Predict the 3D structure of the following.
Amino acid sequence: MSGGERETGLERLFPDMSVLYRLERMSLPAKGRFRGTMQGKRRSRALGSSLEFADYRPYAPGDDIRRIDWNVYGRTGRAFVRQYWDEQELSVCLYIDVSTSMRFGEESGRKLDYALRLAACVGYAALAGDDRVAVRLFADGIVRELPMCRGRGAAHRLFRFLDGALRGDFEGEAGAAGGSDLYAAFRHPSALPGRSGQTWLFTDGLHESGLEDTIRALLAAGQDVVYVQLLSPAEIDPQLAGELRLIDSETGTGKEVAIGGSVVASYRQAVRQHCETIRRYCEERGVAYLFVDTGRPIADTVLRSFREAGLLRG
């Protein structure tokens, strides 16, 4: 690994470097058509100035005469102008939950670390496809932000930002503890994307409220929303028994409990119901939903689950 790779945190973000190379040949599909400010590789319905021919239309005064097809004029005696598909970039905004509960999990499967690595994968696939990428870390509010960047050459900025979060640079900042209301981070208009595009939410979904308001706000902002819910193996299937004191990672409050087989079974059922409620709500509103077990290898999640869900192609 070169010094530049160490500097941008590639080794921490991509323990399996083969994933990075595979991502160079992948792209983010978009359900809708989004108009950008610069040309990219993604065709829109608007007609513009790319090199891909779309159709002819009769010449009208004021048209660029360089677009007249003189071969057609020679055959028909009528002037027709060539039209081309307008290829535009997609604006992708990656929101990563950095609240206290996201820091739960074993070192190899901590939810926040996993979310940051997934965001690195999605962001790099977008940049490699000449799309635009911004990243926002959120808890009770937006904690840190990487402004929109574009093109493969901006990958080092993306990786440096995410590696800083992986190392905990944001911890201790105001609002980084998080709370029970997801919408608290999205309530202010400035927290929402400024242009139509695609938004990815990486979160454990352990909020008492705010899901509906957050999704509504993002859809109203013209976003194609992808909701990625991450839970650790210990949250999905806890191996607990006996009399224990459980601590709420968000509030710090504790409770004495006696845990037996029936309690664990009830907990598992509650987790399944909670995740199913989120999945169903997303499905009803046209939001892509993917559940992620952070005990799985990143490569398996990105190259298999993301592709099977239609979130990455190539």
Residues 1-6, 33-40, 42-51, 241-245 have pLDDT under 50 and may be disordered.
